[in-house]
Amino acid sequence: MRTTEQLTRIFGQEAATRVSTARLLVVGAGGIGCELLKDLSMSGFQHIEAVDLDTIDLSNLNRQFLFQRRHIKRPKSEVAIQAIRDFNPGIDAHARQANIKEPTFDVDWFSQFDLVLNALDNLEARRHVNTVCLAAHVPLIESGTAGYLGQVTVIKGGETECFECHPKPVERKTFPICTIRSTPSAPIHCIVWAKNYLFAQLFGERQDDEDMTAEEDAENMEELKQLREESTALAKLAEAMGSPEFARVVFEKVFSSDIARLLSMADMWKHRQPPTQLDYDELESAALDSDFDPMSPGTHSAMSLTDAFALFKYTAARLAQRLDSDEQGTRGSISFDKDDEDALNFVAATASLRSYVFGIDQTSIFETKAMAGNIIPAIATTNAVVAGMMVTQAIMVVSEQMSRCHTAYVSYNSKRSRSVLSEPLALPNPVCAVCRRRYLTLRVADLSRTTLGDVVDYLHMLAETENNLYLGEDISVVEGSRILYDLDFEDNMEKSMEELGLWRGRMITVAREDLDDVESVAGTVPVVLSIAGPRVEDASQPLDLDIEGFELIPEFAPLPPPTPDEAVPNGDQLHFADDDVAVVVDDSDGDEGLATLHHVKVDNISDELAKRKLSDIGVRGESSIKRRAVATDDEATISE
Amino acid sequence: MSQHNRVISKEEEALYDRQIRLWGMEAQSRLRNCSILFVGVKTVTLEACKNLVLGGIGRLSIYDPQPITKLDLETQYYFNESHIGQPKDKVLAEKLAVLNPLVDISAVSSLDDIAGVDLVVSIGRQTMGEWRRKGVKSILADAFGLFGYIFVDCLDSHEYIEEGRVKDPKTGESEVVRSSKVATYKSFEESVKAKVAGGNALRLARKYSPLVFVCQALATMDERVQADSKLAVSQFIKDSLEQRELPQGFVGDELLERVQASWGTEFVPSAAVVGGTLAQEVLKIITLKDMPANNWFTYDGLVSEGIACTL
């Protein structure tokens, strides 16, 4: 075991002891994660658990220094933990190759840790961990890097801002559906079309028709109808995959007949350059004369029309071959992966063809890969700096010196004198929809026996007997975007929690509906119940139902009075706990809304619930709800 | 540049993809062909060298014949019990080679022959005059406890490219504009003697962090004092600051106390920040992209402040 004399000299014995006994969870073992695990284990931390779903790829090796070539394809968490065990024999460090959103990692699991550190690369996981840490009352150190930039902050429920106190700007721009499907004007539009429409419809997961309950206006109604028909027709073409004519029928549809249909809409092209249809046979014979090799296309230069055609034919055939097809027409699917050469080249080729159709600038495969794969450039140095800053803060957190914690940034601008700078931690947003909540634990012995009605009755009983629940008779129970129960909706009372999909790890929100009558501030703060099993100690005689954790609830300040003409956020995308639906507030200029980029299951979310949620986070005034189905891919990291 | 004139291979393109997307092929190519010498092995050396090897420099030479001690094991993670007594440079070179087989890494037995070296980085030991005389760019750096510093000497004329974005007022589109610039650097001797413009503490604080004067003092401290007691070090710093004629109380007692507590220790997280920043400065010097710090950078890990200034 490595000694820690110097650590003790710098931070004192008390802190050194706290460090050695603290139990840490590290979420992510990639760029920041490798550096973080090394720093933690070399700074006296002895109990570390690392969770990461990913496996090692060649492109990781320029910065994820715990990995070498021989580790490629192995799980990151395992190799990283093995490496720090090699640095520190005897350390109590464990790895899990898993998705942190799995039900196993429930509130009870999280609460075994003294501190959680995020080393993630996507918003979705960060939001999830933020919520569970609030529910488990465990402090969280959040981080992010992109190129030369990085930041670190400390989140402690009730004391500091949480990750969702202020909406993060959506890094990945979304585009109106008509731009993608009818009137593209930039390379990115063609790439999004190729990846999220063409590739997805042909090779992706079999979808029902796009579930677009769009609020159609008179102008786009006809267009949207046409687009839906086209999507359906394309999906049908996917069934032709086994035949040698597959590439031809697809090509002729999307680059010829669909374009003809667009050209027939004269109004669309009054002020725009109209598209040109492409001819399959013409291109096929031109390709025969070319010495372009689709097996190794040049990645740094734009493709000619003929080359793009050849690459399209080649990759379409390869992808078709990869998919099984049996007589019933059911087949597997390929999800887009930027490191899957066939998929990437298919997208690059078809995006290139579409760019030729619409007279848009070409991009090289290298550039397309970055846009299609949402690649964030990454280097070793930024990650090393950010991880170092995280660990110093970690020592402060576990040794109860929160006053020394701060948000820290690393920047690059060589004109400014400060490349590493800090600012004090911010206070929580008083109307935050995530941290202005009373997080309690709902322990259920048997989820298949206990009904929703049992839970509601229990809540009513507690409200009468306990002073610290602050809920009245008039409550609503919601899970994600579903209303489970309120005074007008009792259909689910007899259903078991299991039947309703209320499993361990899920959270249900209980809010008072009679807000005008509420005297206590606590009453205005919704309760979030994390569903968990019985306490380990009670295993032999578990209570059917129990709610606990009242003593950990922080004080909440009264809500500020609403300002009458608070502006409605412009085109903001608001993510709720259930990522299946994004609800967009339509801004009054009727400007760009959202595009359907993916096909996902859409749970029912009533306009009422949506408006209530908006009101919850401080949006007042008129808002119209447009519905779009949006899913998230691997997302970009921090915003600047 | 130096001895090699290697072109980026397909394999390197794949390996370095994520960083090529940040600084471009040309910069990667320059890295590929450079030769760097590190003198002195401390934790910050491990950090900076790790970053540079991962980044794909051409050649790394390390000089530090000192034997590895038990205390080193606390923070110098590439060393373990079996290495005690062995020369630092040799063991480090072996360990770093595993990170990237494409980099040429070796321990050197003397500092006499530095032919082909593009940049010398001295860690914790002052050999700066030597390099300037030989016409080689150099850096002096150290990381101790929560603190660290970097001093850069790119000689009399360092040419570099600065990239900026310029927006076309008509189309609203912005394009990248590259301009060629030249910067001049002071020698270490000049810098430590530089007169600091008088005036009150407030005005001075706008230009300089108090820490930079403390670090300058530490950088000039010779080995005898370094090996001496904490009290002697403390006195040396106070004497140096007095010679600088800084306003009363500009360098506070609290800072001096913290520096004293950190002096003679190592702390991996701060070494990582300083090592990361150091590696980034090396990259700027080699790739000729952006101006390397001119000329001091200091870091205080307690408050996460990394400040550059010219002294």
Automatic annotation (TrEMBL), chain A:
<keyword id="KW-0067">ATP-binding</keyword>
<protein>
    <submittedName>
        <fullName>E1 ubiquitin-activating protein uba2</fullName>
        <ecNumber>6.2.1.45</ecNumber>
    </submittedName>
</protein>
<feature type="coiled-coil region">
    <location>
        <begin position="214"/>
        <end position="241"/>
    </location>
</feature>
<dbReference type="GO" id="GO:0046872">
    <property type="term" value="F:metal ion binding"/>
</dbReference>
<dbReference type="GO" id="GO:0004839">
    <property type="term" value="F:ubiquitin activating enzyme activity"/>
</dbReference>
<keyword id="KW-0175">Coiled coil</keyword>
<dbReference type="GO" id="GO:0005524">
    <property type="term" value="F:ATP binding"/>
</dbReference>
<dbReference type="GO" id="GO:0019948">
    <property type="term" value="F:SUMO activating enzyme activity"/>
</dbReference>
<keyword id="KW-0862">Zinc</keyword>
<dbReference type="GO" id="GO:0016925">
    <property type="term" value="P:protein sumoylation"/>
</dbReference>
<dbReference type="InterPro" id="IPR045886">
    <property type="entry name" value="ThiF/MoeB/HesA"/>
</dbReference>
<dbReference type="InterPro" id="IPR042449">
    <property type="entry name" value="Ub-E1_IAD_1"/>
</dbReference>
<keyword id="KW-0479">Metal-binding</keyword>
<dbReference type="InterPro" id="IPR000594">
    <property type="entry name" value="ThiF_NAD_FAD-bd"/>
</dbReference>
<keyword id="KW-0833">Ubl conjugation pathway</keyword>
<dbReference type="GO" id="GO:0031510">
    <property type="term" value="C:SUMO activating enzyme complex"/>
</dbReference>
<comment type="similarity">
    <text>Belongs to the ubiquitin-activating E1 family.</text>
</comment>
<feature type="active site" description="Glycyl thioester intermediate">
    <location>
        <position position="178"/>
    </location>
</feature>
<dbReference type="GO" id="GO:0005737">
    <property type="term" value="C:cytoplasm"/>
</dbReference>
<dbReference type="Pfam" id="PF00899">
    <property type="entry name" value="ThiF"/>
</dbReference>
<dbReference type="InterPro" id="IPR033127">
    <property type="entry name" value="UBQ-activ_enz_E1_Cys_AS"/>
</dbReference>
<feature type="domain" description="THIF-type NAD/FAD binding fold">
    <location>
        <begin position="6"/>
        <end position="432"/>
    </location>
</feature>
UniProtKB/TrEMBL annotation, chain B:
<dbReference type="GO" id="GO:0004839">
    <property type="term" value="F:ubiquitin activating enzyme activity"/>
</dbReference>
<comment type="pathway">
    <text>Protein modification; protein sumoylation.</text>
</comment>
<feature type="domain" description="THIF-type NAD/FAD binding fold">
    <location>
        <begin position="16"/>
        <end position="302"/>
    </location>
</feature>
<dbReference type="InterPro" id="IPR000011">
    <property type="entry name" value="UBQ/SUMO-activ_enz_E1-like"/>
</dbReference>
<keyword id="KW-0436">Ligase</keyword>
<dbReference type="GO" id="GO:0016925">
    <property type="term" value="P:protein sumoylation"/>
</dbReference>
<keyword id="KW-0539">Nucleus</keyword>
<keyword id="KW-0833">Ubl conjugation pathway</keyword>
<protein>
    <recommendedName>
        <fullName>Ubiquitin-like 1-activating enzyme E1A</fullName>
    </recommendedName>
</protein>
<dbReference type="GO" id="GO:0019948">
    <property type="term" value="F:SUMO activating enzyme activity"/>
</dbReference>
<dbReference type="InterPro" id="IPR000594">
    <property type="entry name" value="ThiF_NAD_FAD-bd"/>
</dbReference>
<dbReference type="InterPro" id="IPR035985">
    <property type="entry name" value="Ubiquitin-activating_enz"/>
</dbReference>
<dbReference type="InterPro" id="IPR045886">
    <property type="entry name" value="ThiF/MoeB/HesA"/>
</dbReference>
<dbReference type="GO" id="GO:0005737">
    <property type="term" value="C:cytoplasm"/>
</dbReference>
<dbReference type="GO" id="GO:0031510">
    <property type="term" value="C:SUMO activating enzyme complex"/>
</dbReference>
<comment type="similarity">
    <text>Belongs to the ubiquitin-activating E1 family.</text>
</comment>
<dbReference type="Pfam" id="PF00899">
    <property type="entry name" value="ThiF"/>
</dbReference>
